[in-house]
Each structure stands twice: as C-alpha cells, then as structure tokens.
Amino acid sequence: MILYDVKTSPSPRRVRIFIAEKGLDIEVVQVNTAEREHLKEDFLKLNPWATVPVLKLDDGTCISEAIACCRYLEENYPNPPLMGVNPSEKAIISMWEHRMEWDGFLAVAEFLRNTVERLKNRGLTGTLNFDQIPALAERGKKRVALFHNFLDERLAESEFVATDKYSIADITAQVSIDFAQKAGIPIPEDKKNILRWYSNVNSRESAIS
User: Of 15, 22, 64, 95, which is most buried, counting CB atoms within 10 Å of its CB?
Assistant: First the structure.
C-alpha cells in the first residue's frame, strides 16, 4: 500500500494518526500541493477530486477521503479497534466522528479557506476555482466557537469523545482542534474539559504523526 500524503494538511493527518495507532508500516508519498501537484494529470488519475489523502492498494485500487481510508484499514487490521467492535458501538463512534468533522473540522476549513491569501480563488477543494467569501469566514469562526462549547460539554460526561475508549472520533476532534489552533483559534482557557482531554490525546505517541 501507498499513502499519498501532505505533511502539513489536516485531512491526511487523520489517516497518519490512525496508521500509527494501528502500528502499521505503510509507504508514504508526499504530494506537493504548493506546486499544484494534486491538480496534475498523474495525481488526478489516482483521485479525480484532487484531494489528499489517497490510499493506493496493492492491486491498484485507490481510496480517497480520510474516513474511507481508515475504514479500509480497520477492516483489514482490526486491532486495536478504533471504529467499534459491535453494531451499537460502531454506530455511536460513527455518529460522534461525523459530529467532530461537521462541527469542528469543516468549520475551521470554512474559516481558513475564505481567509488565507494563498487560498485566494480556492474557496473549496477540488479542481475548480471558487472565490473566497468573507461572510463564510466569519460564519466559520463562529462555528468553531460553538464547536468548542459543544465538545467541552460532551467531555464533561465522557473521558473520550464517543465512548470510554479512544477512537477515530477522538482523532478527528484532535486534528480539528490543532487545525483551529494553526488558524489562530486556540482552545479557550475556560474549556477545562477539552484541555484535560487534549492533554491526554496529545500525550499519545501517535499525536506526532
């Protein structure tokens, strides 16, 4: 297998953390998005949507989207389980992972893609150009604040995001928090539950992935 990665991008980092938690050794190829390699023909053959990560299997099959890459790895390397072990747990983890992505990760992306100068005309991922919209940047920032509130409330009643064990929901939440901090939106000091949880997940060896 080969993981097509961008070291500075949050989406493939979710897969890198997942791989590290599984203890897998997978070949990694860096894609230089600054040089628009993801928009060139060779990469578009791997993923016509021009996004990373992409997991290329030994038979040539290419899987894009972070959660899909993780699902493939979970099915083939089930230990340690990061996506649940029974129908109920799998559904609960999937529910919370989606909430972390929608309320956290995508909120930061909405803010960043409509703010950063180097992403001018790149308001959305993909092969087409879209103008930045300042109103969406403002909305994204407000959504991140709501995410902090929501996550802190959740972590007041649970050691980890989805269940009493570390899971892919924690990975998505952790990457979202780090994504926000790099965008200039730190964890508010009064969010004690997030800070406790963040210290915990950030102490895991996989956090440096």
Answer: 15
